[in-house]
Amino acid sequence: MANRLTRADVDRIASLAHLELTDDEAELFTQQLAEILGYAERLQKVDTSEIDATWQLHTSLNRVRSDSLAPSLSKNDVLSNAPDGKADRNNEIGSFFRVPLVLD
Predict the structure, then answer these.
(1) 6 partner at 20 to 30 Å CA-CA among 22, 47, 51, 61?
(2) How open is the CA angle 88-94-98, to the nearest 5 degrees?
């Protein structure tokens, strides 16, 4: 591999992902990521010039279910098990799921 993955690279990636790695974890991930990138580099060298593009599926070969309207749960039923499901003045549960803050 021309550009070898370094421990500093893994430390930077961990920092960007807000991960705290032990020294052992960082060393292990450096080795594992280097192997994954090496495999991806090998795949890039595979000659696919004789392979037909498969960007479009042939629907005659694939069974696809019909897109039909079906009954669904009510909003109250869906939100009834939400940890913050509070009823509003019309005795309806709120319209949203409350989730923990992910980004500051």
Answers:
(1) 47
(2) 135
Q: Strand, coil or helix: what is 87?
A: strand
**Distance, CA of 27 to CA of 34 (rounded, Å):** 11
To the nearest 10 degrees (0 to 180), the angle between helices 23-44 and 7-16 is: 100
List of residues 6+ apart from 6 with CB closer than 8 A: 30
Cα angle 34, 38, 40; round to 5: 120
Domains in the chain, start-ordered, CATH in brackets?
A: 7-44 (1.10.20)
